[in-house]
């Protein structure tokens, strides 16, 4: 089992980093970096920063995560998400450092009828998902001490929350009805729970690829939105279920983007709470 004292986090100012850094700062000396301090696309800067700080663990969060923008500009997605990951992995290799790489359940094509496990075959369809999957392959090839963590539909981050939960709440406060797709399914993943799970996992020494989504039955976007409005106490906005063809988008979304934490289940590591419980907690404590 590894012993960690110093942790370097890339993309520390983003949605996940906002929750992850405080979780790790309770125990470790954490160096928070973002594009201003260490652009992961700059190989020399990455190596110099890591060489100077000498962390025991690098948690690589930095990424382009706007799926549609990545679809419009695949080169940028590969530059940041793939080559940036290679730069981090090479620095970890050179200095014998354990690496955590955050990936996504969308590395699968979504044709399965039930949630994906770590043992299913990857077949990413969007440029974002392809760039993240190529990052996985690089980490697997270069390193022996690594954790690849696949998240689901991420929510959390407070003021950094630019995703579904915050958007639905903002829209529902100004509109009396919203149309939400009911034919896309996923596993909500709370950033605080995810960060806490990562902290526990890296202390096991069980390297490999893990799904880490919140427990509870997977849901559609429509069901997720219903839960958001219920917990926020917003009853002035009616939700209408619609087909995803109603909202054509540049990037394809998998029909099934839900995950099952089978690697953790097999080890009796039941770390992730039910997503409804965590969603309610997040909304009540942070967004209201």
Q: If helices are DSSP runs of H or I spanning 4 or more residues, what is the number of helices?
A: 10
CATH homologous superfamily grouping: NAD(P)-binding Rossmann-like Domain
Q: Strand-residue fraction? A: 15-25%
Tally of structural domains: 1
Structural class: alpha/beta
**Average pLDDT reading:** 96
In which order are the strands of the major sheet placed?
2-1-3-4-5-10
Regions with pLDDT < 50 over 5+ consecutive residues?
A: none
Q: How big is the Rg?
A: 19 Å
Describe the largest sheet. Answer: 6 strands, parallel
Named at the architecture level, the CATH assignment is: 3-Layer(aba) Sandwich
Concise synopsis of the structure shown:
By secondary structure, the chain is α/β, with parallel strands linked by helices.
List keywords for this structure.
288 residues; alpha/beta; Rossmann fold; six-stranded parallel sheet; three-stranded mixed sheet; 10 helices; 13 strands; globular
3D structure, described in words:
This protein is of the alpha/beta class and 288 residues long. It has one domain: Rossmann fold (3-Layer(aba) Sandwich), CATH 3.40.50.720. Helices cover 40% and strands 18% of the residues. The protein is built from ten helices and 13 strands. The strands form four sheets. Strands 2-1-3-4-5-10 form a six-stranded parallel beta sheet, with helices on both faces. A three-stranded mixed beta sheet has the order 11-8-13. Helix 1 crosses helix 7 and helix 6 crosses helix 8. The longest helix has 22 residues. It is globular and about 55 Å long. 46% of the residues are buried. The mean pLDDT is 96.
